[in-house]
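Researcher: Good morning. I'm working through a list of sequences from a screen, and I'd like to move beyond sequence-only analysis. For each chain I'm collecting a predicted structure so we can compare shapes side by side. This is the next one on the list. No need for commentary yet; just the structure.
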Amino acid sequence: MQSETSTSEFKPVNDQNWQMELNKIMSKYLYIGTIIAIILNPLFAIVDYMTVDDLWIQFLIIRLLVTSVHLLVFFNRELMNSNPLKAGFIILSTVMVQDAWFYSFTPQETFTQVSLAYLADFVGAGMVLLWSPVIAFAFLAGFIGINAVFFIMNSTLTLPVIMFEGGLLLLAGAAFSMAMVVFRYHSVKSMLISKMELIKSNEWMAVQNEIIEEKSAELQKSNNRLKEFAYIVSHDLKAPLRGIRNIAAWIKEDCGQSLNETGHMHLQLMDKQIQKMENLIKAVLEYSKSGIAKNSAEWINLDDLIRDVVEMVEIDANTRFTIRLRVPEMKGTKVVISQVLQNLLSNSVKHNKKMVKEVEVEVTEDGNQIRFMVSDNGPGIAISDHEKVFDLFQNLRANTDYESSGIGLAVARKLIEESGGKMWVESDSGKGARFYFSVPKNTLS
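Model: Good morning. Structure tokens for this chain:
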């Protein structure tokens, strides 16, 4: 279940996810703004007492009513935490109605100063408590409407005087404040989404790293089991096999005179099977150890290397080798190239029953790769078997005098792939075979 979940596609953050994070930010500013309003609003009653004369009692009652609303909202923790936009709208709306009512009674001689105070109050409260573009535009329209109604009801000033003395400045400031609300909303939204996507991406990568570590641990265990298996094969299987060979030799030596032709044939078959088993054990050990040893890269004279490999291959007088080198030397792991070529050349000779066996080796440069080709005029390989020949213990030719473990090509491909290259075959039945392998330039190690 863990792997199914962890390997699922990464899903971007949706609106509900980031809105929850925005609510947390809004709640924090809402608590701060509400506390400021609760503290400052009653204190301004002292200013009213010194400036508005007989209206200060009316203003005080309004301030106390508004402060009571703020207290009710402040102590409604569910509303403040789960729906801070609604709570902030209530608080800001009551402040706006209160200040618009007071503003409509302002005389001309103090109108500019009161307008500036009203603007500062409105911009500060609006920027703290408003977070929605839709509500910001609605609030601006309500701000204009409420002030217009109260001025019609209470003010003795004309519209040109109101606009000239501070009303126009107040409207411009209110519009700018609401525009900043919209800008902040989109900026915060982008920031929160990016932050949450980064967090989710990091979590996803952490899960993937954990899976990789688990797979690496499993691979290490498999490698350890392979090493243990190699040890068992080399020590525990070879000993009884030598014992069987010795017993067969004793039987032949002690009872050879009394055995008939069938008995001697059975002993020969036993010796042949023992030899086959020894070859198989040797091949398994070779496969299990391939890639374990770390070999250093060196400059290789390809002509010398290929001729040395040809000398190690069991050939007869009917075998003709052709070597075409378009790359005289390369930097790589000599033991890898030598072992792979020896395997391919041996296969080209031993599986070919023609009177004249033709084997060609060609080395070319292909971009950033060095490409080797070993071709022959042997029986070829069916297209359907092109991948099978590289499988472990795969021997496609049952009727042959040569005892093959079916592991050589698997070892060869493993060595090439671990060197950063690839190996493949091009062939068809009865048309010979062309084995290719390529390795990166200067990267074998």
